[in-house]
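Office hours follow-up: a student asked to see two folded examples consecutively, so here they are.
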Amino acid sequence: MTIDRSEGLLRMSSVGIEARSYEAIAVEDLERLAQIARQDREAFFQDNSEWAEVYAQRVLCVALCQGAAMHYVDSRTGINDFDVYTFYKAHPRKHWCARRIKSYDFGNPKFGQSVDRLDFIGRRVDCLGREIEVKAEEDVIMALRRYIQSGKTQTAKLLATKAVVLLAPHCSTVVWPLDYENPKMNYLDLVRMSGEKCYTLTAENEADMFTQDDGVVIEYPSGKSLFIHREIIEEAMRQLELKGTLTVRDIHEGITNRNGARTDRLMAILRKIEGVTFDKRPRVLYYRR
């Protein structure tokens, strides 16, 4: 991105494909961005008490916007940097400091480096803030969509050209574009299945599945158990819905970090979801809406 300080805006850069990352953005990456934004707010409010008094308790949501958000949606755009916006409920007497832009290191080399910040370990993360009007009957998604659709500000017009993905609350929910279909797979479906049996794809070995808020515990007849974190399961759900298929290699190398037991049981969990079918040899999951 290039920074236009006169308007406090980030405009799309002309960085070529060779300088972009095409690595898939996982839920845990979105959570990392939310953490960076939270730390940025805390530092800013600690150093600026006059702003803290007015806006510290008016945070509506945090979202990934523009190019990187579009890459999360289509897996084709590529990532130059991460533009993270914190949206505040507008205050009746004091406008937010819209021209403030603070850059941070993503801190993980997974996506490479931004060409203009080779001193960073990871891609550049630009933290920005905007105030938006929120009606009494609106939730976060409704308010943010109305702000973008209105096109009343340069920022709203700019954000409408790409994508907007929530980081907090409702991490990974796509707010924009409107025609994007958010995943129909839902972790809550697994919560409702808690206590049921699950089976591996090839040997049909059974185990008990107990779903918790932070993940799923698989208990074997032998008494041994295996815990799979919720973010791993949700990332597998996202990829399966996006691609329509997931191979054992996709999961083993891209999601479970080559943990064979976790790969096997994750596929056993996913096969229980409505709309998911599978082949035993080779091990492949299919999803049809």
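And the second, which I mentioned at the end of office hours:
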Amino acid sequence: MKDELEIDIEEEFVKRALKEFGCWSIKFKHIGIKGAPDRIVFCPGGHVFFIEFKRGDNIPSPHQEEFAKTLSKLNFTVYFCYTVASAIRALEMEIAK
């Protein structure tokens, strides 16, 4: 939905991730660290990944891109999601690994 706020997208994903997939999506507290993703997602089978929720035509900041690269070097995946559907697709891809 075009007028949806980032927090609305995030909250709907959190509810669906737990209810439909049994995944815990925890707010990633990043005090003093620029660019950390919004959520760390723990899935059955030991899959862990990160999501940064965006809205509209917002693009990831350079700090967010750099943080994502750092996590990637540690073999974690960071998804930049603009809709609940894209976040659910990311979750489904992680569970399928």
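Two things to take away from it. The chain has one domain: 6-96. DSSP finds three helices and four strands in the chain.
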